[in-house]
Amino acid sequence: MKFAVIVFPGSNCDVDMYHAIADELGEEVEYVWHDEDNLDRFDAILLPGGFSYGDYLRSGAIARFSKVMAAVKQAAEAGKPVLGVCNGFQILLEAGLLPGAMRRNQGLKFICRPVRLTVENNETMFTSAYEKGEVITIPIAHGEGNYYCDEQTLKRLIENRQIVFRYHGENPNGSLADIAGIVNERGNVLGMMPHPERAVDALLGSADGLKLFRSIVNYWRETHVVTA
Amino acid sequence: MYKVKVYVTLRESVLDPQGTAVKGALHSLSYTEVKDVRIGKFMELVIEESGRDINELVREMCEKLLANPVIEDYRYEIEEAVAR
């Protein structure tokens, strides 16, 4: 299975993402610069965290117009797994691949620490390796993770089980309905503020993020590898 | 040449954490008459005559990039700059 890590000017979690896939998962992975226009050779697309284009105007607002985003849209339409973490999530929102928008954290501070999450939906291609309702620990690092959408959208998210992760216990940023991560209706585009790529080894404080990447690989094997 | 001033603010229905903090600061300075503070962005654009309707052009740019219609409202003022 081959992963793409999209790199924008200002991305800074691309190396962690690459490490998670190459070293912890042992799968193929390649960096893709934002001006490429073809992602056909990849099976899954990862949009890493960081501060693309300096977060000027709004987080993700400028990155969404880069060349590679047309190809990311195509990959999403083709049903390939697309994962956006932190700034990657913000880009997916700005691009309209996921509904809603991010506001500044309620407490106005940039928060960088491990948080606990509940796996609300373990029947997605990103979460099948988790137990339903499993509580996991994954770090966050953001100043704008205060998720917002209108009431109708929230109702739809709940009805379609699109809320995949919620903050457990305490909500660090004021996000609506404690939302930490959502998928699109089809279930192949996941955006989340916590950083699973920073939680892939007990040495880092948690290996709870690993199951997310394993789920993607399992999904791909089940759908693409014919067993003899 | 047009000079266009664009103002972007969070929608009324969206809580503005920065505005709330500034309101609290003003209250602590005893400006208790302040009932609400909304913080937004101010942008100045200089736009060349291109044959396109200037209002249409500015609205398009606001909706595509300058504001995020999910959480933000925008308004703008157009001034025709004097040709040199």
From TrEMBL, chain A:
The keyword Transmembrane helix does not apply. InterPro entries: Class_I_gatase-like, PRibForGlyAmidine_synth_PurQ. It catalyses: N(2)-formyl-N(1)-(5-phospho-beta-D-ribosyl)glycinamide + L-glutamine + ATP + H2O = 2-formamido-N(1)-(5-O-phospho-beta-D-ribosyl)acetamidine + L-glutamate + ADP + phosphate + H(+); L-glutamine + H2O = L-glutamate + NH4(+). Its EC number is 6.3.5.3, 3.5.1.2. It is found in: Cytoplasm. The active site is at 86 (nucleophile), 195, 197. Its main location: cytoplasm. PROSITE patterns: GATASE_TYPE_1. CDD domains: GATase1_FGAR_AT. The keyword Hydrolase applies. Pfam families: GATase_5. Keywords: ATP-binding, Cytoplasm, Glutamine amidotransferase, Hydrolase, Ligase, Nucleotide-binding, Purine biosynthesis. It comes from the Bacteria. Pathway: Purine metabolism; IMP biosynthesis via de novo pathway; 5-amino-1-(5-phospho-D-ribosyl)imidazole from N(2)-formyl-N(1)-(5-phospho-D-ribosyl)glycinamide: step 1/2. One of its GO terms (molecular function) is phosphoribosylformylglycinamidine synthase activity. Part of the FGAM synthase complex composed of 1 PurL, 1 PurQ and 2 PurS subunits. Part of the phosphoribosylformylglycinamidine synthase complex involved in the purines biosynthetic pathway. Catalyzes the ATP-dependent conversion of formylglycinamide ribonucleotide (FGAR) and glutamine to yield formylglycinamidine ribonucleotide (FGAM) and glutamate. The FGAM synthase complex is composed of three subunits. PurQ produces an ammonia molecule by converting glutamine to glutamate. PurL transfers the ammonia molecule to FGAR to form FGAM in an ATP-dependent manner. HAMAP family: PurQ. This is Phosphoribosylformylglycinamidine synthase subunit PurQ. It comes from Geobacillus jurassicus.
From TrEMBL, chain B:
HAMAP family: PurS. Part of the phosphoribosylformylglycinamidine synthase complex involved in the purines biosynthetic pathway. Catalyzes the ATP-dependent conversion of formylglycinamide ribonucleotide (FGAR) and glutamine to yield formylglycinamidine ribonucleotide (FGAM) and glutamate. The FGAM synthase complex is composed of three subunits. PurQ produces an ammonia molecule by converting glutamine to glutamate. PurL transfers the ammonia molecule to FGAR to form FGAM in an ATP-dependent manner. This is Phosphoribosylformylglycinamidine synthase subunit PurS. Pathway: Purine metabolism; IMP biosynthesis via de novo pathway; 5-amino-1-(5-phospho-D-ribosyl)imidazole from N(2)-formyl-N(1)-(5-phospho-D-ribosyl)glycinamide: step 1/2. It comes from Geobacillus proteiniphilus. It catalyses: N(2)-formyl-N(1)-(5-phospho-beta-D-ribosyl)glycinamide + L-glutamine + ATP + H2O = 2-formamido-N(1)-(5-O-phospho-beta-D-ribosyl)acetamidine + L-glutamate + ADP + phosphate + H(+). It comes from the Bacteria. Part of the FGAM synthase complex composed of 1 PurL, 1 PurQ and 2 PurS subunits. Belongs to the PurS family. GO terms for cellular component: cytoplasm. GO terms for biological process: 'de novo' IMP biosynthetic process. NCBIfam families: phosphoribosylformylglycinamidine synthase subunit PurS, PRK05974.1. It is an enzyme of class 6 (ligase). The keyword S-adenosyl-L-methionine does not apply. Pfam families: PurS. Gene3D superfamilies: Phosphoribosylformylglycinamidine synthase subunit PurS (3.30.1280.10). GO terms for molecular function: ATP binding; phosphoribosylformylglycinamidine synthase activity. InterPro entries: PurS, PurS-like_sf. It is found in: Cytoplasm. Keywords: ATP-binding, Cytoplasm, Ligase, Nucleotide-binding, Purine biosynthesis.
